[in-house]
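Table S4 entry, DUS-like FMN-binding domain-containing protein.
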Amino acid sequence: MVRVSTHPMRLLAAGYGADIVYSEELVDKRVIASARRVNDRLGTVDFLDKGGEQGGRLMFRTSPDEKPRLVFQLGTAEPALALAAASVVAGDVAAVDDILKTLRRNLQIPVSCKIRLLNSDHDTVELARRLAACGISALAVHGRTTQQRPRDPANWEPIRLVVDALAGLPVIANGDVMSYEDAQRVRRETGCAAAMLARAAMWNASVFRPQGFLPLDVVQREYTRLAMRWDNALPNTKYCLKEMADAPLSFSGRAGGPRSLAGHEGNTSITRARDEQQLCSLVGLRSEPPYEPSRLELRQNS
């Protein structure tokens, strides 16, 4: 999701059990114009805008421990640009989406694709077949058309038809998967290989735990720890915390916890935080560097 699927949020989701994490969608020309820099201080690989000069705006950051599970989402409509952009990041990610045949011919990493439903089940299945024929490694299907919004119920039945038509190709179901139980249910009802979550993961990334949601204050604290550890931009950290604060009550987990930043009051407190120290204080996190690895990071690397 835009502004949410940044480095610390991906690590948080992976730490709670996500097998695959997606980057934000980044446009091909922006990726081509970026410069790759190894950040020795953080142990990350950074891609910077404006030719990668010192102080250039950070476009994308990743770390080696997330590489095996990271899908880089590329927005493009031109095969040559797609290849040029994909080549920039190919050494640091696990898969790239879009312009399939050109990428499959020229890249040594898996290529996947994500689609929405077309106006008829027949058209959706035919599109899926054409994409599969390009040699993709997996296909994600969102159970809504491009005209439908999140408030419109997702339709899982066409996903089942795609699964039946593409025997042997992993299909990832997306749409109205709001809990661990929903993920299991969509797998049963469609036969898909995996379920993709977006809003639920944004609101409470512990949704990937079979044991259920953790209290919101625990998740907010772990997210903030990761954001500080990996030097995430403060505006982005605040944005993600505010999205958690605005989550429906069903995502708060055991009444939210005593330090939960939830609802209008929590959103306002996050907005007023002027720096990392104030933000850390809000979630009950020690703010003096160095930031020790979180329990989630240790779990990932063990």
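Residues 298-302 have pLDDT under 50 and may be disordered.
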